[in-house]
Write a structure and sequence with these properties.
single chain, alpha+beta, 5-stranded antiparallel beta sheet, 11 helices
Length: 487
């Protein structure tokens, strides 16, 4: 079971913020909400400087297009280099220098609502002409009205809003309350990651989302702090849809002509990587960040390369630089690649995520980031040695078959992986892979994902209801690489 699936809560949500800092094994962990993933160049630069001055020097990107900084000391400065959390508690980090810097940068506009400003938006909205509308103004309006509604400060820090511009990239990332345009001036209300059947005017979209949040807070289990997400309560989405319909003057199911894409069939491969846009128009540079970890130097470079439009963080732990000329995008891509960022959509790094792992998380059984990096290095070395450049450019997929044999005596599932030779097969790399240090699988992306879960005896790989136990990182690497069509 994933951490996001737990129900029947017995305590209030303790999701970290910039003021409510979590005492992790490697020091304080602060999370800064970035509605719509929008950052100005100066804000990104200040994040980079503050991460170096107060924390570990790394900015972690989250699956909600937010950011977090680790290694904060109790005084807002660095934690001790050998910190293991000690006897520090979350309250020891309050009013630190890091939070003051975030407030000065405009990243902490409300002390009371800072943890509830979880607002996803289509990262390319308004940039490439492919969405049905630019949802950027709706993001700003929701953030302003959310922070201006005192009662909504009581939302759990895990409650998620989303604005999809019609392309279907974020509507199915399990938002509690989201909007997806279905036609001129009309949008579907998404509740708990599923089409509620309610259609609302675009002009009432923000009102509908706020009404959904208020209805959620009115649920008895939420008032007792026993639920953090709409999907945790049976029938809650249906009850909320009725209340929203009354609020906005619409009828549930009104105007619905066909069901929308169900969550189980949510599309994959939305991560924008490389130079995007029309040849004669403005360009967008999509940058994948290996394991979602930006060093201060990398963040500073992206801030320097950004146009006046700033940067946009993506729920795939990447960064988008809109508003560039084609020449600027090409130059920015070259510079980003030199500092370890990924600008090649065919890179095996795309779609690879990991939780914090050791030493940052006391619950983790392995240093999953180091192991994932080792596995990716081995994959890329194999690519170079077998000269698969031509094969990488094809769209043909690889049929990989995995048979599982159970050794009853040992209780181990031994993988037998069958895949075509590397030299004659394309590398698709389309299957997302998430490395997790324990069964909680924090940070796991939604949808079909190969889970690489640390165990006391190595790693277990879970996919489509089947599991394979691997004894060491070499065996784990071979299985993951085969699953992704990269051997």
């Amino acid at each position: 079971m994933f951490i996001g699936d737990f129900s029947g809560r017995s305590r209030p949500d303790a999701c970290p913020g910039a003021l409510q800092v979590h005492a992790a094994a490697d020091g304080g962990l602060a999370r800064i909400r970035v509605p719509g993933g929008r950052l100005t160049s100066s804000q990104l630069r200040e994040l980079a400087d503050a991460a170096s001055a107060c924390g570990s020097g790394v900015i972690e990107l989250t699956s909600r297009a937010n950011v977090q900084v680790r290694g904060l000391g109790a005084d807002g400065g660095h934690a001790n280099g050998d910190s293991t959390g000690g006897d520090l508690t979350d309250t020891d980090f309050a009013d630190g220098g890091f939070a003051a810097r975030m407030a000065a940068a405009g990243l902490l506009p409300s002390a009371t609502h800072e943890r509830v400003r979880n607002i996803l938006a289509s990262p390319l909205t308004g940039c490439d002409g492919r969405g049905m509308l630019d949802v950027s103004p709706l993001v700003s309006d929701l953030d302003r009205r959310l922070c201006g509604t005192p009662a909504l400060a009581g939302l759990p820090g895990r409650f998620l809003f989303a604005f999809d511009d019609g392309r279907g990239d974020v509507a199915w990332l399990d938002p509690d309350a989201g909007i997806l345009p279905t036609g001129p001036g009309e949008a579907a209300l998404i509740l708990a990651g599923t089409d509620s059947g309610l259609r609302v005017p675009i002009g009432s979209a923000v009102t509908a989302l706020l009404a959904a949040a208020e209805a959620f807070l009115a649920e008895p289990e939420v008032r007792r702090a026993r639920a953090w997400r709409i999907g945790e309560l049976p029938g809650c989405a249906e009850r909320i849809a009725v209340r929203v319909a009354v609020r906005v003057g619409s009828a549930v199911g009104a105007g619905r002509t066909s069901p929308l894409l169900p969550r189980a069939q949510a599309p994959t491969g939305w991560e924008p990587v490389g130079i995007l846009g029309e040849p004669e128009g403005p360009a967008v540079l999509g940058v994948a960040v290996p394991l979602g970890r930006l060093t201060s130097a990398q963040a500073g470079l992206l801030a320097d390369l950004a146009s006046p439009a700033g940067v946009r963080l993506t729920p795939w732990r990447g960064v988008v630089l809109p508003g560039l000329t084609p020449a600027e995008a090409a130059g920015a891509a070259a510079l980003a690649g030199k500092v370890g960022l990924v600008v090649d959509p065919g890179s095996p790094w795309t779609g690879v995520t990991a939780c914090t792992g050791r030493p940052g998380c006391a619950k983790s059984l392995a240093d999953v980031r180091a192991d994932a990096t080792r596995a990716m290095s081995a994959t890329m070395s194999t690519d170079m040695s077998t000269d698969t450049t031509a094969a990488m450019s094809t769209d043909t997929t690889v049929d990989v078959t995995i048979d599982v044999t159970i050794d009853v005596a040992a209780g181990v599932a031994a993988p037998a992986v069958t895949a075509p030779d590397a030299a004659g097969s394309p590398r698709t790399g389309t299957l997302p892979v998430h490395w997790a240090g324990c069964e909680r699988r924090c940070g796991r992306p939604r949808g079909r994902v190969a889970d690489v879960v640390a165990t006391a005896a190595g790693y277990r790989i879970d996919l489509d209801g089947r599991s394979l136990n691997c004894a060491d990182i070499e065996e784990t690497t071979a299985v993951v690489t085969a699953l992704r069509g990269e051997t």
